[in-house]
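Notebook entry, structure prediction.
Reason for the run: the old model in the group folder had no record of what sequence produced it. Starting over properly, with the input documented here first.
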Amino acid sequence: PTTMTLTSMSTLRRKRQTDLFSTTSETVATTASSAAAVADSQSALQSQKQSHSNTPPSKKQPRLTKNQQALQKRKFPRTWVPLASVYELDPDRPTPLQFLDQNYVCYKGSSSTTNKDDGIDRSDNWVVMDDTCAHRLVPLSEGRISRVAVPINNCDSDINNSATTTTTTTITTLQCSYHGWEFDGNDNGKCVAIPQATSENEEIAIRSPRSCVKSYSVRLHKNVLWCWPWPEDSLSILEDYPQKHPEGMMRSIARVP
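New structure, fully documented this time:
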């Protein structure tokens, strides 16, 4: 029995040593494979960083307005859109307009030049914007047009004759009726005045693109006000399609008997 016991203990000791050696070998193999995987991932990450550094940065896509998002889903030809006849528009009041169930506002003029002698406004400048205030989403068509005249002196000097011509530049903005925020449609709908804010807070707020109201490209042809309301660039779409411009569209209408 003593011999059998010693034999059994020796066999058990050898078995334990074998198991311990196998476990150690597996641990070493696992550690080596993990280290190799980490090295591969670091190498891939480094390669990805190098490829990104060689790739030119992509342009940030402009934020689409609610009207542009709605029009982007509509299957409508990308053409200049006739919104209204100029005879329907009041030059002294904002006019609400609609196209494909989307609301716009139109008003007359910004930075127009008037001669002091005859007082004739020689600007045919119409502005089309989204009919939504950036502050509380109130319709801007319920607001009013604000015009501020700024005098400019133009001195024409000559050896024999010198004359000074006084002209006036009119800065025109659209003022919301709710809190009096003012927007300049000719400056991409930029907010130019916030009456309730201090000068410091106003300067910070008007620098934000969220304080702007989207304004659109406008053309006046045959006394019809045409607008480009689509989010796509008009030049890239209409370069080879003159019939989609106001002139081409009016010629095609004139040919109809």
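Summary: The radius of gyration is 36 Å.
The old model has been moved to the deprecated folder.
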